[in-house]
Amino acid sequence: MDIAASSPHRLEAGDSTPGTIRHAPGGVARNVAENLGRLGHAVALLAPVGDDLFGRSLLAGTQQAGVDVQACWVLPDAATSTYLSLHGPDGDMQVAVNDMGIVDRLTPEHLRTRATLLAQADTWMLDGNLSPALLEWLFGEAGSIPVFVDPVSAFKCRRFLPWLARIHTLKLNRLEAEALWGRALDTDAAITGCAHWLHAQGVRQVVLSLGVRGAYGSVADGASAWAAALPVPVCNATGAGDALMAGLLHGHRRGFDLSEALGFATGCAALTVMAPQANHPGLSVQAVHQLRQRHAPP
User: Fold this and answer.
1) Burial, 25: exposed, middle or buried (Cβ in 10 Å; 0-12, 13-18, 19+)?
2) Which sequence spans correspond to the domains of the chain?
3) Structure confidence at residue 91 (pLDDT)
4) Span 2-8+23-294 CATH architecture
5) Which of 146, 205, 133, 134 has the alpha carbon at shortest distance from 172?
6) Long-range CB contacts (< 8 A, 24+ apart) of 248-257?
7) What's the confidence (pLDDT) of residue 212?
């Protein structure tokens, strides 16, 4: 659950400041699942929640968006993952605390109880909140199933270093790419160099999310493409990367080529930043196409 506090006043340490507090469902994998459900895909979420108010709310809201949550684990003695952030007058996050300890409670033994569901899926998406032990088990079981990965953060992305050759699509933001590659992505040559390095490690498809630059993608066979960020009013940038990932998965399942998948994915991200929450309730294939058409070159 994402809890965000914002104030038009300067935040003073040790004092109470008037403002607004909002909460909404969050979590990278959960956000991607919700977006896929809204895009019309059959999608199941495997994630742990606590037997608490937040957990029950997350499961109900996610199911309402079209996601199968029957395979989620409800752990009665753990708190649902929560992310708390404080934002000042400029809207930027000044401090945040995340309580993700429940994810560490998941073990390969838990996943073995969902082995049939996992084996029947045509695509997996994993995020970097999973422990190294879980990643080792999952990549060992994936076989020929394409695995899409969002590493979540620059700190957690290094968990995937041993498994790069098993990844079909790796979506990275600038900080995550720099953490993996060990160099700055400060030029176009560096951007393409990072992608080539990841391909050399075995990643089949690389997508770099670069903020106002849009997104760059490349595949191991040499194809590459840029997709410009659409000039839309930004209400909340949280969740844009998750929408981008959902768009890439949509493109993969629909057989899009790299350029079309990247364009659709950036459309998903653009629509999402126009909403105050991390998931746009009006996300649909038609809504994304209409947004892209409005911003298409004359």
Assistant:
1) buried
2) 2-8+23-294
3) 67
4) 3-Layer(aba) Sandwich (3.40)
5) 205
6) 248/148, 248/169, 248/171, 248/207, 249/32, 249/36, 249/41, 249/123, 249/125, 249/148, 250/36, 250/39, 250/41, 250/285, 252/123, 252/146, 252/148, 252/169, 253/41, 253/122, 253/123, 257/223
7) 85
Q: How far apart are CA 251 and CA 234, in angstroms?
A: 24
Distance CA 201, CA 127 (A): 19
pLDDT in tens, 16-29: 989 999 888 999 99
CA gap 232, 296 in Å, rounded: 13
> Which pLDDT score is estimated for 285?
97
Mean pLDDT (the chain, rounded) = 93
Spell out the SS3 assignment of 12-73. CCCCCCCCEEEEECCCHHHHHHHHHHHCCCCEECCCEEECCHHHHHHHHHHHHCCEECCCCE
Q: What's the average model confidence in pLDDT over 239-251?
A: 96
Contact yes or no for 270/291 (Cβ under 8 A): yes
| Calpha distance 185→295 (Å, rounded) | 27
Euclidean distance between CA atoms 63 and 42, whole angstroms = 12
Task: Report residue 223 as tokens.
Answer: 């194809």
Which residues, at least 6 apart from 87, have a Cβ–Cβ distance to it below 8 Å? Answer: 4, 5, 6, 7, 93, 94
If residue 278 lies in a helix (H) or strand (E), which one and from where to where? none
Q: What is the pTM of this model?
A: 0.92
pLDDT band, very low/low/confident/very high, at 79 (cuts 50, 70, 90): very high
Q: CA-CA distances (angstroms) from residue 65 to 61, 124, 244, 263, 291?
A: 6, 19, 18, 24, 21
273-282: pLDDT as tens digits: 898 888 999 9
